[in-house]
Write a structure and sequence with these properties.
This protein is of the alpha+beta class. The protein has two domains: about 60 residues, no CATH class; about 80 residues, no CATH class. It is built from six helices and four strands. The chain has a four-stranded antiparallel sheet. A hairpin with a 2-residue loop joins strand 3 and strand 4. Helix 2 crosses helix 5 and helix 4 packs parallel to helix 5.
Length: about 140
């Protein structure tokens, strides 16, 4: 019983070490098998190129946060936007909850009472990919 439990825990721990791309490939082996060797190598690295279909982009980058459609030069296109979340640390001032007068929630003259750190999680666009006729026609990544 102990050996079985240890094997299950070890297996669960090993699967959590795999990359998101590898997990998506394992869930969709037939989509990955349809790619040529060059595209398989690119997808494993999380890279895309013009001409790839949507299933390859799903393997490389995952599900988009937003999908929009538009027209350019007389052609319809689809745009997938990917979002990242950034932790922003700030300093907050004031009583920790509601202030009901001196001595209710602490000493209002104590600097630590008024100053406390706060964390906000701010979403922002991280990347996009555009498709024309179901194939990648362009993409954008942030400058780093």
């Amino acid at each position: 019983m102990t050996i079985v439990l240890a094997a299950v825990l070890l297996g669960a721990g090993m699967t959590s070490c795999t990359s998101p791309v590898e997990r998506r490939i394992r869930k969709n082996p037939e989509a990955f098998a349809r790619l040529n060797e060059q595209d398989q190598a690119a997808v494993r690295q999380g890279k895309i190129r013009e001409g790839l279909d949507k299933s390859a982009v799903l393997l490389a980058w995952g599900e988009p946060a937003r999908v929009t459609e538009g027209r350019r030069n007389g052609h319809t296109f689809e745009r997938w936007n990917y979002v990242e979340v950034e932790a922003v640390f700030t300093q907050s001032y004031g009583p920790p909850y509601a202030y009901h007068g001196p001595g209710v929630h602490g000493d209002p003259y104590d600097a630590a009472y008024y100053a406390r750190p706060a964390v906000s999680y701010v979403p922002h666009d991280a990347a996009f990919v555009e498709f024309t006729a179901g194939k990648v026609s362009g993409w954008g990544l942030p400058k780093r």
